[in-house]
């Protein structure tokens, strides 16, 4: 296939049609794209901020926060939807096997300093969660799901999650 003229392009097109992940350039301006930020909180990303925070500067975390901040600014400037999950726990409800972390009132449960401005941006939907699975944590007592409602309201077809730097885009 690669030896034929255009065979490489055909292979890439075939891969793109079958793969759920696509490069930034293909989807950045596509209607129906939403930005999802997952656990960009002090307790996971700020040096020395808690039991699960890095103890020394970490280039991968720094890059993730920088990319998340850059994308959040772009999305908010264009009035595009942003959904942020924030790990937040009550002190009397442990999350085994993890040590206590992101306890309400500790500051660990809050956005990293570079993203604090998102708390007041009208394009941002925030969801504090007390478990690993953000989707499950988005269920309300009446059975509705805040994340599903966000997807439906903004007709989200593609999600951008910069917290997974190796996976750039995901179709939903």
From TrEMBL:
Stretches assigned to the Isochorismatase-like domain: 34-135
GO molecular function (one): nicotinamidase activity
Domain of life: Eukaryota
InterPro entries the record matches: Isochorismatase-like_dom (IPR000868), Isochorismatase-like_sf (IPR036380), NIC1 (IPR044717)
A Gene Ontology biological process term: pyridine nucleotide salvage
Family label: Belongs to the isochorismatase family.
PANTHER family for the chain: OS02G0606800 PROTEIN, PTHR47297
Listed name of the protein: Isochorismatase-like domain-containing protein
Source organism (scientific name): Triticum urartu
Gene: LOC125513201
